[in-house]
Amino acid sequence: MLRALTDDDMRRSLMRIAHEILEKNKGAQGIVLLGIITRGFYLAKRIGENISKIEGLEVPIGALDVAPFRDDEKRTSKESDRSKIEFDLNNKKVILIDDVLFTGRTVRAAMDAIISRGRPDTIQLAVLIDRGHREFPIRPDFVGKNIPSSKSKEVVKVKVKEIDDEDGVYIIRARGDEYEI
């Protein structure tokens, strides 16, 4: 297992993403953050805290469950939707946040989940890690780090303190072997 990002690397990446979001959107007005459950939500909270430090303004943060909107084996019923969004999405600049962008299927499902709840002005995508291998024409607006990877032989694992008791990004051989880039 190779550590691709340390806790300090993650902290710096999330602060940079917060700055880039504010620059692209000319401030925090009209912005809402939606973190994809599970780790994307915790990253969204951190980006929201960074925006608050920079702008002195708190932006709404919600948790988005994409499972009911997936097109693959991970799909669940809409009755089991665990999303927690306590604000209106209409005419907002929605910043969708996830830990790893891979095939794009999760993001496609997330966009369906967002549109089912309202009509935002824009949807922008922020990811901590972009590992390539898209199956849909989806491109992030904000990226912490690009990590080219093997589609079938490697797994990129993001760890967050809130769940895993540590922050870091690891690259793991799918069969369990350790290796270095």
So, CATH architecture? Answer: 3-Layer(aba) Sandwich
Instruction: Count the beta strands.
Output: 8
Integer average pLDDT = 93
Question: Total number of helical segments?
Answer: 4
* CATH overall fold name: Rossmann fold
Low-confidence stretches: none
Task: Tell me, briefly, the overall form.
Answer: globular
Radius of gyration: 16 Å
- What's the level 1 CATH class? Alpha Beta
Q: In which order are the strands of the major sheet placed?
A: 3-2-4-5-6
Element-by-element helix/strand order: EHEHEEHEEEHE
Instruction: Give the N-terminus to C-terminus distance in angstroms.
Output: 10 Å
Task: Write down the domain tally.
Answer: 1
Structural class: alpha/beta
Please estimate the helix content.
25-40%
Largest sheet: 5 strands, parallel
Strand content: 25-35%
